[in-house]
Design a protein that fits this description.
Layout (H helix, E strand, L loop, with lengths): L1 H52 L1
Length: about 55
């Protein structure tokens, strides 16, 4: 019985580690998209501002 409990605890720890890795990867992916969108929007606004001054 104790072996089964220990095995379940280890399995749960492994699942928790895998979930943590997935969350980190997802956060990095979202951050990358946010930076890319900010750069694109900034570039568009800069270009529009530059063209309006010409």
């Amino acid at each position: 019985m104790a072996d089964t409990r220990q095995a379940n605890k280890e399995r749960n720890r492994e699942i928790a580690r895998n979930e943590e890795a997935k969350q980190i990867t997802g956060s990095i992916r979202v951050s990358t998209w946010a930076v890319a969108v900010a750069v694109i929007v900034g570039g568009i606004l800069f270009t529009l501002g530059w063209l309006s001054l010409r």
